[in-house]
Write a structure and sequence with these properties.
single chain, Butyryl-CoA Dehydrogenase, subunit A, domain 2, Butyryl-CoA Dehydrogenase, subunit A, domain 3, 3 domains, 11 helices, binds flavin-adenine dinucleotide
């Protein structure tokens, strides 16, 4: 007779600290994220999905337990996670609640981009001093006031794909800017305390330029800010990604989360910044595999103790899922380990390949999990059908949608800079 494995084996760390040679800090951080995910996020995940409601209670617990400041440097009072450490922890969140992990990512980017990323970018000394002063205020809002940030970029046109200037306009005004525009799919709409908006600074009658992109913190209750539209999507329902409208909203110059021109520099010199949407889906990929193992062993809570693991077809399917999962993890781990300023062309192509792989494979694994486990596994009382729907969203997220990754990899693999036919 087989020795039964402990049921918890299926929920081991996604990235085993010994196998992946994690630093002691990463091992501790991911272990705490995993524990938080299982204790706090997992039991509530079905509710946000069913109601398409924002996971406010999760944010209360995240605030209390220090997760809002994960990427704020330790000397400023945060947890001091760098890009890779954050990605690894966020995957453990995504495994337990996709919507919470995805919205948390929008918040964390406001600290990662203003912090670690801008430290790697060029600016003159006075600009850096001003940025550091503003950034200290930004960190304090999060750590002392518990403020949550969102990241509304998308406008429904080509701007979020990075091919044209944002149509949300910041017009210079006495002491700051006046903002006009609208953002679609603005996760945390109506729930974040500040919207970290990307917009274009208008210089007189000059044509709008991506170089003039500004990243501004707009308070939720600023006059002229409104939330519109319904939110009843297929997946990631707890993100509450409704439409945000800005009508003549005034913000002071200190609302700049990055100095003028720095977002454009970051997008070209620190391209891995766009990979921050992937950890959620890495977690969902792992969750789909874990579910399948538990289910076939007759150990999935709520599904009854029927074992199905003795069938050769199930064993083959799980083996194929494991191969796909290991491929996904290996490529993703390599890409997040390489994140930094001025990557080589190879590193950028690898990051795009990793993004495409995680986003596509998360859904492929969830699809295969449903097929393998069978009809009873997709009942709404079990988490698999939610994983299936949530994982469908990853490939759609700009600027690095699965399609756009393929588009760039193909073109950039075949053409060097300046070449044309
Ligand atoms: C659950 C969820 C949460 C989201 N949260 C946020 C958020 O918080 N903030 C935010 O800014 N956005 C968010 N988004 C939006 C997301 O990033 C995309 O902007 C959105 O899905 C685009 O939808 P669309 O139909 O307008 O796409 P379109 O712009 O119509 O594009 C459709 C597809 O065409 C392809 N495409 C687009 N542009 C080009 C191009 N120039 N060349 C070639 N192909 C192209 C892409 O593959 C794209 O998937 C969220 C999306 C989802 C699903």
């Amino acid at each position: 007779m087989d020795m039964p494995l402990p049921a918890a084996a299926a929920d081991a760390p996604i990235f085993d600290p010994r196998g992946f040679r994690l630093s002691p800090f990463e091992a501790d951080l991911t272990s705490r994220a995993r524990e938080f995910g299982a204790r706090v996020l997992a039991p509530r995940a079905a509710r946000w999905d069913r109601e398409a409601s924002f996971p406010t209670a999760n944010y209360d617990d995240m605030r209390r337990e220090g997760w809002l400041g994960i990427c704020i440097p330790r000397e400023d009072g945060g947890q001091g996670a760098d890009f890779r450490a954050y990605c690894l922890a966020a995957a453990e969140f995504g495994r337990h609640c996709g919507a919470t992990a995805l919205t948390w990512n929008m918040h964390v980017c406001s600290t990662l981009w203003t912090g670690l990323l801008t430290d790697d970018l060029e600016m003159d000394a006075p600009t850096r001093a001003t940025h550091q002063r503003r950034r200290a205020g930004h960190y304090a809002r999060i750590l002392h006031d518990g403020a949550v940030f969102s990241q509304p970029f998308s406008e429904g046109g080509a701007a979020a794909a990075g091919t044209q200037a944002f149509g949300t306009i910041a017009t210079p005004a006495e002491g700051g800017f006046r903002i006009n525009g609208r953002k679609i799919f603005a996760s945390l709409a109506g729930h974040a305390d500040f919207y970290g908006v990307l917009c274009t600074e208008q210089h007189g009658s000059e044509k709008l330029s991506r170089r003039d992109t500004l990243y501004l913190a707009i308070p939720r209750d600023a006059p002229g800010v409104s939330v519109e539209g319904e939110w009843d999507p297929l997946g990631m329902r707890g993100t509450v990604s409704r439409t945000l409208v800005f009508t003549d909203v005034f913000v002071p110059a200190d609302a700049m989360l990055m100095p003028p021109g720095l977002y454009f520099q970051a997008a070209s010199r620190w391209p891995h910044m766009f990979m921050t949407l992937t950890p959620t889906y890495m977690g969902l990929a792992q969750a789909a595999y874990d579910f399948t193992v538990r289910y076939l062993r007759g150990e999935q809570p709520g599904a009854g103790p029927v074992k199905r693991r003795m069938y050769a077809t199930k064993q083959v399917a799980v083996a194929e899922m494991r191969v796909m999962l290991e491929q996904t993890k290996a490529l993703w781990f390599q890409a997040i380990s390489e994140a930094g300023p001025d990557p080589s062309k190879d590193q950028v192509l690898r990051a795009l390949a990793a993004q495409n792989t995680v986003m596509e494979n998360a859904n492929a694994l969830a699809t295969k999990a449903v097929r393998t486990c069978g009809g009873q596994s997709m009942l709404r009382s079990l988490p698999l059908e939610r994983l299936y729907r949530d994982s469908r969203c990853g490939s759609l997220m700009l600027p690095w949608t699965a399609e756009l990754c393929i588009d760039r990899i193909g073109r950039e693999a075949l053409y060097e800079r300046g070449e044309a036919d």
